[in-house]
Write a structure and sequence with these properties.
Elements lengths: L4 E7 L3 H11 L7 E7 L5 H11 L4 E4 L5 H15 L4 E6 L2 E3 L3 H10 L4 E10 L6 E3 L2 E4 L3 E4 L15 E2 L7 E5 H7 L11 H11 L3 E12 L11 H18 L2 H24 L4 H16 L8
Parallel strand pairs: 1-2, 1-4, 2-3, 6-12
Antiparallel strand pairs: 4-11, 5-12, 6-7, 6-11, 8-9, 10-12
Helix pairs in contact: 6-7, 7-9, 8-9
Length: 303
């Protein structure tokens, strides 16, 4: 019997996307997987649960009483998956669809090496199904996380050679039970953004490796010209969590440099808020993100 896998799909006010994702999972050919749907306190939580139970009676639903973010919601699913004896958990964004054989590919990669702890998929833009969104990535404290081949047309769609990667995106992330038992769950202080990089860095320090199984194909509903970063609160999470990631994982010398940078960036945003009224709200959120980091305020942004 192949290893037992639990796929965790986190929903927050995204019923239509989640249902399309779950429908794609019904075509998966892997013989030993289950689906856990975690609702992160959506406004239509009861109606959502009813629809899922009706259309996908074999899926297990966890309804959270409050929105605990990407990490918190997925952690609820991970805890349940481990209780049920699963050997792997696979975090999957609700705004994705998958190829029928994608589980076979990530499991084959995970089982190829005892040190292999985290496996990602080759992820395409849903609107441009032959253009790559993620096929491995690099990370540095200067440039942050950079996806390989981002936006490029895939000239090797049948590629199957597993490649190492610095981190795997939480959009589609297979994690072995051994990793979770050794390093624990996702860090909920992030709430959203950077928790996947943090987890991969922690796993690496614990002796595990990460890779991408390019034969595992996933399509993600994200725009190459994403408007999300235009939302001021997104800037808040990015700046605060970049500092948190540094605090948790960087060397003392790197932390010192980043902390000094944050002071100068803070001053620059104060000036921008005064002289550039069109971006005042964004600058205010960046300032608040830096302030909350230094004050130790993490988790969900408090309105």
């Amino acid at each position: 019997m192949p290893p037992r896998v639990a796929i965790i799909v986190l929903n927050y006010n995204g019923t239509a996307d989640t249902l399309e994702c779950l429908r794609s999972l019904t075509h998966c050919t892997y013989k030993n997987f289950s689906v856990i749907v975690v609702d992160n306190a959506s406004v239509d939580a009861d109606a959502f649960a009813h629809v899922v139970r009706t259309e996908f009676p074999h899926a297990h639903i966890i309804s959270c009483s409050e929105n605990t973010g990407f990490a918190g919601g997925n952690n609820a699913g991970i805890r349940y998956a481990l209780e049920q004896g699963n050997e792997y958990v696979l975090l999957l964004n609700n705004d994705t669809t998958v190829a029928p054989d994608f589980i076979e590919h990530v499991i084959a990669a995970a089982e190829s090496d005892a040190r292999m702890g985290i496996v990602g998929a080759k992820i395409y833009f849903h609107a441009e199904p032959d253009h790559i969104w993620f096929n491995g990535a690099d990370f540095s404290w200067v440039d942050g996380g950079k996806h390989y081949q981002y936006g490029e047309r895939d000239n090797e769609p049948n590629e199957t050679v597993v490649s190492s990667t610095t981190f795997v995106t939480g959009c589609a992330m297979l994690i072995s039970r051994a990793v979770i038992e050794k390093i624990g769950l996702l860090e909920e202080a992030f709430f959203m953004y950077y928790e996947d990089i943090d987890y991969c860095l922690r796993a690496k320090r614990a002796g595990f490796t990460s890779c991408v199984a390019p034969g595992a194909h996933v399509w993600h509903k994200v725009s190459r010209a994403s408007t999300a970063m235009g939302m001021p609160r997104i800037h808040y999470y990015h700046i605060r969590n970049a500092l948190l990631l540094t605090m948790r994982n960087a060397s003392i010398s790197v932390r010192g440099g980043v902390y000094i940078w944050s002071v100068f960036h803070y001053a620059k945003q104060i000036i921008k808020r005064v002289v550039m009224p069109k971006i005042r709200e964004t600058s205010t959120m960046i300032i608040r993100g830096i302030e909350d980091f230094w004050r130790g305020r993490f988790g969900k942004l408090q309105e």
